Amino acid sequence: MKAMILAAGRGQRMMPLTADTPKPLLLVAGKPLIAYHLERLKEAGINEVVINLAWRGDKIEEAFGNGQHLGMHIEYSYEPEGGLETAGGIAKALPLLCSQNDTFIIINGDIFTDYDVHALSQLQLFDGEAHIVLVENPAHNPEGDFLLTHQPNNAQKYTFSGIGHYHKTFFANVASGKVPLGPMLRSAIENNTVSSELYLGLWHDIGTPERLNQINQEMEAKNVG
């Protein structure tokens, strides 16, 4: 199985930190965010990774190359300036993602988490299906995004973590260009082709300089303790 790390976003809310640096290269405890994802994927036995690139993607490619020094194989999916949004970027990368397997894992490059992707990779998906990971609502998204699919009577919405497992045919009808993922997921949930789970462990959306500073302070305190 392969995995894709989404790294093409411009990171406007992270300015000025992203003026010349892609968001996945911002540091948490002295290490780029994207490096944590690569390490956890390797630990889960997933050694083949696709990374999509747009804004200053050359810096990511320069930092990680073909992944050989990590004992991995990294390929890149190049997008135009401004990117293709999530579903558009995934659809463009399908030829790289599905050369050996019909399903793959997607991880947002700008989150910080200890989620175990090995368990996610063991799920069996069929044509048109997807499985997404939800987390408790952070302060910046108090209303949440999605209901838990296995609890239809629970009105509580949770936040999409940016982690998911997808069958390639989930993106079969995605048009070329910019296509967001959210509307596709909502439609598929109504058609009962998306399942979900709630993860209660470590998860942070590194969306602003303040949030990045906060997680670094927490990591520093943890290391000192």
Verbal overview:
The protein has 225 residues and is α/β, with parallel strands linked by helices. It starts with a strand and ends with a helix. It has 6 helices and 12 strands.
What tags apply to this protein structure?
single chain; 225 residues; alpha/beta; eight-stranded mixed beta sheet; two-stranded antiparallel sheet; 6 helices; 12 strands; globular
Concise summary:
The chain has 225 residues and is an alpha/beta fold. It has helices at 33-43, 57-64, 85-97, 117-121, 182-190, 209-224; strands at 2-6, 27-28, 31-32, 48-53, 73-78, 103-108, 111-113, 130-135, 146-147, 157-167, 194-199, 203-205.
Tell me the structural class: alpha/beta
Estimated helix fraction: 25-40%
The outline comes out as globular
- Provide the succession of SSEs: EEEHEHEHEEHEEEHEEH
Beta fraction of the residues?
25-35%
Major sheet details: 8 strands, mixed
Number of helices: 6
Multimerization state:
single chain
Overall average pLDDT: 93
Report low-confidence residues grouped into runs of 5 or more.
none
Over all CA atoms, what is the radius of gyration? 17 Å
List the helices and strands and how they pair.
Elements: E1 2-6, E2 27-28, E3 31-32, H1 33-43, E4 48-53, H2 57-64, E5 73-78, H3 85-97, E6 103-108, E7 111-113, H4 117-121, E8 130-135, E9 146-147, E10 157-167, H5 182-190, E11 194-199, E12 203-205, H6 209-224
Parallel strand pairs: 1-4, 1-6, 4-5, 8-11
Antiparallel strand pairs: 2-3, 6-10, 7-12, 8-10, 9-10
